[in-house]
Input
Amino acid sequence: MQRRSFFKVAGASVAASTLVLAGCSDDPEPTPVAENVLAFSGFNSTGQPIDDGILNYAYLLTQLEAAFYLKVVAAPPADLQPGELAYLTDLRDHELIHREYLKAILGSKAYDSSAAAPLEFTFTSFTLTTRAGVWAAAQQLEDIGAAAYNGAGKLLTVTANLLALAKIASVESRHAALAHEMVQADSFGATIGADGLDDAKTPTEVFVLIQPFVPIKLSAANLPTT
Amino acid sequence: MNLFNIISELEKVDPEIMDRLTHRRSALNALGDLSKKMALAAAPIAIGSAFNKAMGQQTLADPTAVLNYALLLERLEYSFYTQALAAPTLTATLTGAARTAIQTIQGHELAHVNLLTAVLGSNASPAQSPTFNFGSAFATYQSFLTFAQAFEDTGVRAYKGQAGNIPRTASATLSGTTYNLLTVALQIHSVEARHAAHVRYMRRDATAGAQTTIMPWIVNADSNGAPAAVYGAGNPAATFPAESNISQGGITSLTTMLGATYTADDVSAAFDEGLDNTTVTTIARSVVTF
Output
């Protein structure tokens, strides 16, 4: 695995080109990774796993979802059914709260804490002018979120961090169930397998799915895998 | 099988774990003997039992106890939906898409029972499911859905309350597939949350009384007719606050301290709270005889 890669970011030009977390392992010859890559580091200077990387990963997911609902609620499709704008507004506020909460507990460890401006996500692949398009997009993002949290739990080493993310995780699953309902009635179980288990995805798998929305190359190479 | 990882993980939380076992070598020899005799799938659980014995009966401190507790909850839920689908009082009201949805949920609960039973192997306790009596739960469609909401929301809280008690490297192998037990618990936790959201959505329908203030998520500690304890604080309350909690991660009030103002409705709904097993069992026994 590529845990060895090691980045050092200097100065305030972070937002402009390279958004990476400082961090390195005990590898004597760190392998540089190309610029314009966002790679959260889940290891400290002596190579021990730390939770900052996974917490930043969760933070990025909440940023993505919050940005999505902000955009939708600011210009909702004309064919929303009664009550749907209220749902979308609640979803926006929940995601804003998740985003600001994770940003607050990460503090200076937030990957963009010294960035001039936050990342600007792109949702051009979605059709946000119809209710069907909005809810299909919401379903996609919420299912990714739920699977991401399910897969991230075992990667956290501090129990308090696991519990903090678990409190958010089940709310994401509730969001996902609602989005499914809006897309197709009674499709709440669509992601649940014959073994009765919901999806769980690794950071690598999640990065592939969210890359189209993120304006910088994502890499999970420095995150723990076990 | 991550036997040595489990031991190493336990050493991190309890540096004296090896002193509690008579000798590291004899403990490992004993485990070696066990795994020779037992099915591979059951071995990790046997390890859990060994630790449980060594540490005295601490509350759900090992995967076996956690999984048996989860098994009880899943058996209860499976029995609840099975009885509902067979209840003459619901024949005329639990129909069409609603019946299909409940059958889907029932199927998931059965899958959970089967998975947990397989993982536990001979450590499943009790070996057979108890008989559950849900009293007047099935008297009306509305009553049934109120109970369903209570069980699903309690299930979410119960799994969340145990997440920290499952070593993150503990695993079990079934039919060649290795399951990380913490991931399995989180995946079931996620399913329970989807169920809860759907049942809450069903309660908004005209046939269930058009209760359109009920959201898919938990607003404050609103019980929507379910027992208040389902949404109340557990023990200790500092670890398991009520669902109305607006304080997280050392931040006293998320309504005012995140750089903008958010309502208590939104803040409380944005976080689901865990619950300890004693409180969960007490809630269950308050509405179910088993």
